[in-house]
Amino acid sequence: MELTNLLKKLTQENMLGAIEFASDFLSDFMAVHTTPLGSLVAEKDGFGDKIMLEAHIDEIGFVVTNIDKNGFIKVNSYGGSDPRVLPASDITIYSERPVQGVVASTPPHLSKDNDSKITEISDLVVDVGSNFKYISLGDFATLTHSFSALKNNTVSAPALDNRAGVAVILRCAELLKDSGRKFSVVLSVGEEVNGSGASTAAFSVSPDVAIAVDVSFAKAPSIPDDKCSKLGGGPMIGISPVLDYYLSLQLVETAKNKDIPYSKEIMGSSTGTDADHISDTLGGIKTALVSIPLRNMHTGVEIVSLDDIEACAKLISEFVISGGIDND
Amino acid sequence: MINELKTLCSLNSASGRENEVRDYIIKEISPYVDYTIDALGNIIALKKGLSEAKNKVMISAHMDEVALIVTYIDESGFLKISTVGGIDNQVLSGKRVTINGNIGVIGVKPIHLLKGKEKEAYPEISDLYIDIGAKSKEDALKYVSEGDIAYFLSDVVELGDNLLKAKAIDDRIGCAVLLNLIRSELKYDTYFVFTVQEEIGTRGATTASYTVAPDYAIVVEATTAADILGVDGDSKVCSLGEGAVISFMDRATVYDRELYKLAFKLGAEKEIKLQTKTKVAGGNDAGAIHKSRGGVKTIAVSVPCRYIHSPSCVINKADIDSVYNITKALQEALCID
Fold it and tell me: Going residue by residue through chain B (337 aa), what tens digit of pLDDT does each one get?
């Protein structure tokens, strides 16, 4: 499927819709099932060591904690939404039917002195009008999904963390399906809170090697160069104590050999991604991490480059096809 | 009126660049009025009624909305901005905008990388930038220029069956009310003015009221409502669904007490839902009009509006009719005194 279209379809769905879409996509050529926690697992038999390609399919959002008959609700966070971007934002509550709302902003006349302290998410009020009657406590909500084309083959949407990673994985699956190699795909729930979706799926897949795909920081104003990579600069190959150093170096070699633009993302301890939860599952799994450069993380205006998504998929599939994961 | 309001809110007209809305209004009013456009771009129209009026009554609404202006393009292709009109910095981060049809986003430093005080405050406008995905200044200049206006990109959305959300309800609601009055049959000749530059200091109203020199003025507006969960009593200012707002005073005007009482008398007679503003806050074109020339007795009629001056203004659709009806009732009463 054409990449813009694939990404657009993935970002316009909520998590359950995205899982359904991915399941339909993969079941054409893989055996698909869901884990008890809700992660999607797809497996294909073949030769060689078993590689697990993983991306989290959950997105940050909110859960409804209070419903007021005047047409307002209150929420708590699922994952780490940036509270600074929420006032006056569009929000969608996934109730028995989708309900549109607006996150209230404090009217200036009510702010005390020069108090521009941010409103915490649990103090925010969401304005939904008469549709409050469709909403139940515990319903999930996210910033309203949209998809905008920016310049130079970049796009902006909420939930690019990590639908961009899911797009890479689905792309890899397409590229690998005729290779004859044994591989599994895992699209995990729960990354934004505790990684339980990834560790339990890795347990049941029990791969020889795992590659996790997530997003990381792309260069933008006020981000120091040592904390980010260029948007459009290709995959960020993770190097960290919890990742298999040999795998990381091999990914770098593959990028060089295949002329794929790349950068290295160096971390001193854990990675803050599902890679952390996969690598210490069972008796241990050798894990690598490939990240897509992304701007404005955890807001409704995340930005990625479609070129980077293609490059990530190319890097991973070339690496797998070349036998880079097989024990020598 | 709701469909026209939705259309008007989708047009882009910032202070000093009111062309889109002005062109739309001219096209709509031409069959019904004689009009001129003054040097600043105000539309000054005379609608003939069934008879001449004893008093010259002017009804006005402003065409401009709050927006952003591109002040500078840096070497990496990011755009620095200033506000055109009053926009609180808390509603700007992480929003989408359009500049000449190009989509951009107001970017932020990722929350994961924030240190200390950065975590506790909304970014200042001077620290904000628009990202259109450009690779460099040269690349950005293919699409945008310094001095271009960036408008909120905000869909018109119905919230439930009672509320409406859109950008620029301030003051496209006023424009919609005026357009419908112009299309209707009026008993008396009346002046209708669509002003410019309200959001940056009621400047269009200053020149238009000098030109028209009315005896009475009715300003049709949107005004701030804070009737949300957790806000009580007079802090709500006014409430959605409680009718048209008739102010007694705001930061720019002490409204004529007799006109204020007249509005409530008419409202009771004609069963039009009315409320007042329980805080001295905000200001509008009445601020310029009432002190024009030798002075003008002025009243403001407003729709209560939550999150005003943000991409997501919210009103109760039922209040629109109250605003229309009381404006018409006041116009008829004041034309003959």
Answer: 999 999 999 999 999 999 999 999 999 999 999 999 999 999 999 999 999 999 999 999 999 999 999 999 999 999 999 999 999 999 999 999 999 999 999 999 999 999 988 999 999 999 999 999 999 999 999 999 999 999 999 999 999 999 999 999 999 999 999 999 999 999 999 999 999 999 999 999 999 999 999 999 999 999 999 999 999 999 999 999 999 999 999 999 999 999 999 999 999 999 999 999 999 989 999 999 999 999 999 999 999 999 999 999 999 999 999 999 999 999 999 999 7
Q: How far apart are CA A110 and CA A126, in angstroms?
A: 17
State if pTM tops 0.90: yes
Q: B-contacting residues of A 174-233, CB under 8 Å?
A: 217, 220-223, 227, 232
Which of the following is catalytic: A191, A192, A302, A318? A191
Does the predicted interface ipTM exceed a cut of 0.90? yes
Beta bridge partners of B292: none
Q: List CB contacts (< 8 A) between B108 and chain A.
A: 82, 84-85, 296, 299
Residue B19 and residue B13: Cα distance in Å, rounded? 6
Residue B154: closest CA among A60, A135, A64, A148: A148
* Nearest by Cα to B171 from B33, B29, B318, B60: B60
